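Hi F.,

I've been meaning to write this up properly since the lab meeting, where we talked about keeping a consistent format for the predictions we share between groups. The idea is simple: the sequence comes first, exactly as it goes in, then the structure tokens exactly as they come out, then a line or two of notes. No screenshots and no reformatting. I'm using this chain as the first example so we have something concrete to point to.
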Amino acid sequence: MTTTYETGYFRLPSFSLIRRVFQLSAEYFEWTLVLLLVLGFILSSWHDAHIAKLIVEKPQRNDFFLVDYYALNKDSDIRHRYVPMKVLEVKRNSIVFKVGGIAHSTKVSVDKHVQFDKPMLDNYYRKQTLELSFSKIADYFQTGTIYSAARPRNIYINGWIVMHQNEL
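Output, unedited:
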């Protein structure tokens, strides 16, 4: 009586093949480590982009969108164009934002925008608000004008305070 481990289109690898893979990974440990690090970086980038897409598609109050403000308003400063925007209100067909007053000259992560609890500063946001429709927001995300988004947990984003307790 012979036993086969084949099921459908999938065939289980033999023990000798598994052992050989482990031997090769031990022999080429440095390359295996580099490969795992690159795969980890790719998966992390994909995860961040996926989370940003989910936030942009279903925004909530207090979400942060990172935008190229010069693409939204050609009268703004081209040198300092990357600003955060905080969702103030989600309406039926549009979103009202508070526009950040502290800008960067290159695209930076949400951590860099909120580092050292910057959103708690008085001049972090501009006085005027900005209202954008959902269709424009989707277009801006597709073109990269909105290049990232983050949702705070409680009053924090990655350990940095981004809003007052009474804003929850």
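Notes:
The longest strand covers residues 82-90.
Residues 13-52 form one domain.

If this format works for you, I'll send the rest the same way.

G.
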